Structures are given as structure tokens and as C-alpha cells.
Amino acid sequence: MEAPTGSRRTPAPEERQRDAERSRRQLLTAALEVFAAKGYAGARVQDIADRAGVNKRLINYYFGGKEGLYRALQSEWQRREAEFATPDLSIPELTARYLHEVLANPASIRLVLWHGLAADGETPPEPPEDLSDLYRRRETGELAADIDPESFMLAMMGMVMAPITLQHVVRQLFGVEPGSPEFESRYGDQLRLITQKLSEPR
Amino acid sequence: MEAPTGSRRTPAPEERQRDAERSRRQLLTAALEVFAAKGYAGARVQDIADRAGVNKRLINYYFGGKEGLYRALQSEWQRREAEFATPDLSIPELTARYLHEVLANPASIRLVLWHGLAADGETPPEPPEDLSDLYRRRETGELAADIDPESFMLAMMGMVMAPITLQHVVRQLFGVEPGSPEFESRYGDQLRLITQKLSEPR
DNA sequence: GGCGATGTTAACCAGTTGGGGAATTAACGT
DNA sequence: ACGTTAATTCCCCAACTGGTTAACATCGCC
To answer: Quick one: which of A54, B18, B66, B175 has the fewest CB in 10 Å?
Structure first.
């Protein structure tokens, strides 16, 4: 089209027609969509390939099959999760931040939930959640002394993920989509409030 | 083996060999197991039939196929759910009661969660959650005035279902199975505590 | 312009899936 | 005994699934 070659080793991605990297990325994107929507068993390789706009064969070529693609997705997710820094925030703000993250990446969350539901006994290499921070906060008094960090962590994760896990409840009760800004602001405020009440001494 | 026949018109159920009702029930039981463990797409009719100890063909004969069986399960679940009375309990006790129910019937909960995750847009006939009780409790002061019932309901359901949704977190953090009595008592106590803090004025 | 390497495609394949036709067998009233 | 009905089994099948084989196209390089 435009911009003649002129000895380039890294041509602009938009110009290429054959681009392994692009195919890979599009496959991963499409796979996330489909796996998140239908789960591993429900997902169809053909469907993924179609959405990615590439040939089905490439799934095997690049990822070694359906399962390989799935694993690749998980790896990427774990990588991103590890990057997720926990800045120095109060518990309420931290919770709201988690909520935001969840609502911003529903597909990834779904993937995790779906994987956890399957529970074929695996999921062994998962790094243990770090609660030292929570224990510290409890000593500070930021978390009430009678609340145990393990339970709090589980409860908080449950509250934060509820909009995805129970999306139909959100639609029913709030009359909006879980991903809508209205919902995030309303439920976020409430989560701040709730977690705050868990710190202040009665 | 034992107990020769001897002219009986209504034989004890255990003696019968052909019993439509029993086959139906066993199919439903097996289906709950399998669907809860693998999800709809992951479940195999052959697997269900094997666990039920009946011929695969009976699934079609009695329920009209895999989907029919799935629907039948849902119906039964909705029926049981409707029966679940909400006695006159405080919010903390009510929450603990919900937790108990969830932990006692993990398969049913899984089924619901899995169904919700699929989210093919259906699930229309679901009866709307009733919040009038929560609103009343807020007026009484049993629920803090600044907490909105919708959010509270969602958060509570999230906390209560978390042990199923995030079972790996339970194993990781608590070192026990979500279904174990130790876990129920510990997490139950904490949920009572948490929900209680949401009522008392600060 | 040719050439090897690599991305891409089409056609095909073997295994599995849910389902159905029709025979077989047990239950039960007569 | 016997015939009717209903429960159960056997065997087959068409559709679909993920994966593969082998041809084809495009690229970078000489």
C-alpha cells in the first residue's frame, strides 16, 4: 500500500501479511474470549481460529493443540497477576482496587473461576497467597483484632469476584451490567464501606 | 441369593430389578455429580449412565437426552431452593446458615455457578431475589443505615459461596478441605463476626 | 531471479459424542 | 398360562471434534 520497504528488518505490523507474532497474539486473544465464555470443554478450536481470523491449523502449529493454547493463556495470566503490585493503600482502597481490576478483566477472571470449578485436582504450582501484609495490618489496628486474615482474605475475594460469579444477580438486583461504570462505582463504594467497618473498633 | 419370591404383589423396593423410579433417581443423582464436576459441556452421557448403573439409552428414554437431564436437575434444584425457608434469624446467623447450606450441598452450588458462568444469555425465568426483608432489617437498625441492601446481598452471597468458587484458596490458606467441619466452624464464626460489624453503629 | 525457511492453507482422518431403531425381558392384570 | 405394557439392552449411526499430512505461498537473503 504505502511506505515502500527500503531495507527494513522490522516492518510495521499493519503492513505484513504473514506475521507469526500477530497470529500468535490474535489466537491468544480469541482463545481468552472463547475459553472465558464457554470453558475449556465447551470451547471449540474452530471457533477460536475463526475469531482470530487465522487457520485452525495454526493452533497446533504454534501452541501444540487446544490444551497448549489453554496453558499458554494461563501462563500469561499468571505473569500479569504477578506484576500486579500492591501499592501502599488502605484496606478499603485496596479492595476497591481489586474490584476495579476484576471488572476490567472479566474474561481473565472467568478463566480462573472456570478452571477452579473444574478442579480435576491439579492446580499445584500455584504460589501461596501472601498474608504477611494482612497480619501486619491487623497489628497496626487497620484490621480488627478479632478477624483472622485467612478468612478475611477469602471473604474479600468472594465479595470482589461476586459480580462475575453471580452476574445474573447483579443484573437482577442492580438492573445494570456488572461491567458498567454505575455498578462499579456503587458496589465499589459499598465495598469500601464494608471493609472499613471491619477495621474500626466497635 | 436369599428370600425366594413367594407370591408378593408389592415387593420391597430393594428386591425389584426393574424400577423406573429408581432408575430416574439414580440418573439424577449421577447427573448432579458429573455435571457439577465437569460442567455441562464436559460431562459425558456415558459417564453419567455408568455411575447411575443404568443403560445410557435410559437417559433419552426418561429425560429426552442430555439437555433434558440437565434441565430436570435445574428444576429440582429450583424446587428445593424455594423450599429453603428463611427463619427469623439475625443477619449473622442467617449468613452462617447459608454457609452451612452451601457447604452441605457443594454439588448443587457448583451446578449453579457453572451455569452462571456459561451465561449464554438465558436464565430468564429466575425469580427475582427478595430484598424487602433486608430493607426492613435496615430500618430496624439491624443493618447499618449506610449499607445498601443490594450490595450487601451480593457481597454476602459472594462471601458465602467463596469456599466453593475459590476452593483452591481454601486449601492453600486454611490447609483443609472446604467441606471439613473445621473449616465450616472457623469461617462460619468469622462470617458471623463480619456481618455483625456491618450492623452495629460505629 | 532463485532458494531455503517459515508461515499458511485445504483436505482429510480417526476417535468420540449424543442419539435412535428395534429386539429382549421383566412386571402385572386377567 | 398368557398377553399387554413398560423397562431395559444391544447395536448402529450421523455429526462433530481435535489433530495431521502434504501442498502452497510468502518472506528474507544471496
So the answer is: B18
Each residue's pLDDT, cut to its tens digit, for chain B (202 residues) gives 334 433 344 444 445 588 899 999 999 999 999 999 999 999 999 999 999 999 999 999 999 999 999 999 999 888 888 888 888 899 999 999 999 999 999 999 999 999 999 877 565 556 677 888 889 899 888 899 999 999 999 999 999 999 999 999 999 999 999 999 999 999 999 999 999 999 876 5
Phi-psi region of B193 (alpha: psi -120 to 50; beta: other; left: phi over 0): alpha
CB contact under 8 A, A42 and B38: no
Reply yes or no on whether the pLDDT at A140 is more than 70: yes
- B contact test, residue of A78, A150, A153, A156 with most B CBs within 10 A: A150
pLDDT at A81 over 90: no
Inter-chain touch A151–B118, beta carbons under 8 Å: no
Across the interface, of B129, B148, B165, the residue whose CB is closest to A113 is B165
**Residues of chain A positioned with their CB less than 8 A from the CB of B197:** 144, 197-198, 202
Given a contact cutoff of 8 angstroms between Cβ atoms, the answer to whether A51 and A33 are in contact is: yes
Evaluate if the CB of B18 falls below 7 Å from strand D: yes
In chain D, which nucleotides are within 7 Å of a protein Cβ? Answer: 6-11, 16-22, 26-29
Distance, CA of B166 to CA of A51 (rounded, Å): 30
> How many C-alpha atoms does B44 have within 13 Å on its Cβ side?
4
> Looking at CA atoms only, how far is residue A7 from chain B in angstroms?
49
Between A87 and A164, whose confidence is greater? A164
CA distance B51 to B33: 9
pLDDT for position A2: 36
Provide, in whole angstroms, the distance separating residue B8's CA from nucleotide D1's C1': 18
What's the pLDDT at A4? 40
The integer distance in angstroms from the CA atom of B13 to the C1' atom of D2 is 26
**Strand C lies under 7 A from the Cβ of residue A25:** no
**DSSP calls for A116-159:** HHH--S---SPPPPP-HHHHHHHHHTSS-TTS-HHHHHHHHHHH
Residue A82 to residue A76: CA distance in whole angstroms: 10
CA–CA distance, A141 with A199 (Å, rounded to integer): 7
